[in-house]
């Protein structure tokens, strides 16, 4: 689609969860989407307290802003 990622910024994962908690809890309760740790602020805090999962903010050329939680990531720049 020709989308360009402007930024992938590491952020506090619990703070990022706070920004998306309502939507994530709604999806979890309606469809089971997302992992059980999103069910409550307390569950999220316990899960994210281990430090194993990082939070990221993503922005792109089509106006998309998203949230990602991952244990790690690698950036590969392609020439050309």
| Overall shape | globular
Mean pLDDT: 86
How many domains? The number is: 1
State the order of secondary-structure elements, H for helix, E for strand: EHHEE
Q: Describe the biggest sheet?
A: 3 strands, antiparallel
How much of the residues is beta strand, in percent?
Answer: 25-35%
Low-confidence stretches: none
Tell me the quaternary state. Answer: single chain
Instruction: Measure the end-to-end span.
Output: 17 Å
Structural class: alpha+beta
Helix content: 25-40%
- Number of helical runs? 2
Side by side, the strands of the main sheet go: 1-2-3
Overview of the structural elements:
It contains 2 helices and 3 strands, in the order βααββ. The protein is α+β, with helices and mostly antiparallel strands. The protein has a 3-stranded antiparallel β-sheet with strand order 1-2-3, covered by helices on one side. It is globular, with a radius of gyration of 14 Å. The protein has one domain (5-70). The chain starts with a strand and ends in a 10-residue tail after the last strand. Helix 1 packs across helix 2 (41-48). The model has no long low-confidence stretch (mean pLDDT 86).
